[in-house]
Amino acid sequence: MNAFQKLGLDAEMLQAINDLGFETPSEVQEKSIPILLEQETDLVALAQTGTGKTAAFGFPMLQKIDFNNRTTQGLILSPTRELCLQITNEIKQYGKYCKGLNAVAIYGGASITEQARDVKRGAQILVATPGRMKDMISRGLVDISKIEYAVLDEADEMLNMGFFEDISAILSHTPKEKSTWLFSATMPKEVATIAKKFMRTPVEITVGSKNMGASNVSHEYYLVNTRERYAALKRLADANPDIFSVIFCRTKRDTQKVAEKLIEDGYSAAALHGDLSQNQRDLVMKSFRTKQIQMLVATDVAARGIDVDDITHVINYQLPDEIETYTHRSGRTGRAGKSGVSMVIVSKSELRKIKTIERIIQQSFERKDIPDGMEICRVQLFHLANDIKNTKINHEIDPYLPSINEVLEGFTKEELIKKVFSVEFTRFFNYYKNAPDLNSKSATIPDTHSDSTRYFINVGAKDGFDWMSLKDFLKATLSLDRDGVYKVDVKGSFAFFNTDASETKKVLEIFQDFKYQGRHIDVEVTKDSGGGKRGGKKGGFGKKKKSGFGSKDNKSGGGKRRSKDFTPSKKGGKGGGRSNNIENSLKRRRSKK
């Protein structure tokens, strides 16, 4: 008996499973499918990327809907168009023996008219990105008022991308009696919120622990100076000749820049990010799947559609701002039961994040050194030797052998081996013979809860700030790198942030009488930081601006000490604005003084 048959799947599903070569259900499939087939219930399933979640909800949905009815009965929401297309393709494969099945992908970047026409033909299942789905609902191009099943796939990523309002609006057009199935790799508070708001006593299934990383992925970090990050990336690639990897950057700009530099340096690489057209993205992914590209440099959002089982390494060129995102990144490797490696290139200021990630994924990182030039030469030589050993002889070469033997006549076996291997060795030796040691000497990961100071600042959401724009403003004002300011928590009229304790004096000095258009900003050490002297005195911000603070183009941000009469850059996050509440609060403060 097929192992899937024990889960309760019918003949059409089992036939498709047999064609796909599936033999044993994954843990999330084994736990989810029987429940979804036997019960009309809401479900929250927590499982890592690459564990077969699409089949876990795809087979039950296909088995339960009526293919003779052209009404839309199932809705699957996913964060990106790549993932949307991937799920649609898999649903069609799973339902290849379901006569009358019509599954339609709805996503941005393609003709909305054509998608509406496909839906009008009668689509029992819609697979959609939230933005395009909301647009089509508002235009009256789709009707989801009679759906029986709604799936939120990669729910944590959709919410991290800011789709909460879109998802809420979409679900408001669905019947209350439907079953909602939520699948997610992690369980941040936003996912718990949406489960509470839209689901009725859901059954919860957890594969591994919440937010836990896959057990067959090893985690390594390499400590380098920030300016050596790209050189370190190249060495890691050279030290792993068979690498087939995804390299993650924070921004589209960095993604494109790193990919272009790799290509210039002779590596088989390409970029994948949101600025590419759909056709360009499709071509890049096709080349990656066929391994014409060894190193795919991607943003977190673009990588959501990557479904490749043979990825050997994930390289975090930069750590994500949201630590939970690391779980998604590392889940790109170690798929389908294979082992994988997740590498992180970090600077000293980022070390605290490693500790936080360890706590979230419940696994330890191993610190490793960036290999030196001679180690890379050794690895490449043995890689060439194994390539030669494993190469099948092509006998089409036989007619040329007499002429080749004449050219090489007089050389001994040892001399020929030296000459053949010198071709590869010389190339790497010349490049690396004077290469410096890239490893930073700092060896310990700091405790994320020690040697840190928490501050109060009298600006918040009412001044136009969110956590990201305030962080950008603070790091520019304080001349700290991106990870020098952390734990930014923005409230209505005030906010909190942290720096390393070693920066406390600097922070308080810079914000002492810190002015913007003649007004003061108040920064104080909070009581839970062990006390401390006050920073600036009174104050607030001036007129609200759509532009932000802390761009690297802001010339006043550098140097040992910046001007206290701060002028914001035109780039970056949102700027400050003075609200009546802030002003009244500051007047009360001044009167007390």
From TrEMBL:
Residue ranges of every copy of the Helicase ATP-binding domain listed in the record:
34-205
Q: Where is the Helicase C-terminal domain?
A: 218-378
Query: Which PROSITE patterns does the record match to this protein?
Result: DEAD_ATP_HELICASE, HELICASE_ATP_BIND_1, HELICASE_CTER, Q_MOTIF
In terms of SMART domains, this protein maps to: DEXDc, HELICc
Q: Where is the composition biased (Basic residues)?
A: 534-547
What SUPFAM superfamilies does the record tag this protein with?
Answer: P-loop containing nucleoside triphosphate hydrolases
Region of interest (Disordered), residue spans: 525-593
Motif Q motif mapped to chain: 2-30
Q: What Gene3D superfamilies does the annotation carry?
A: 3.30.70.330, P-loop containing nucleotide triphosphate hydrolases
What are the record keywords, sorted? ATP-binding, Helicase, Hydrolase, Nucleotide-binding
- The UniProt record lists the DEAD-box RNA helicase Q domain at 2-30
Q: What is this protein called?
A: DEAD/DEAH box helicase
| Originating organism | Salegentibacter chungangensis
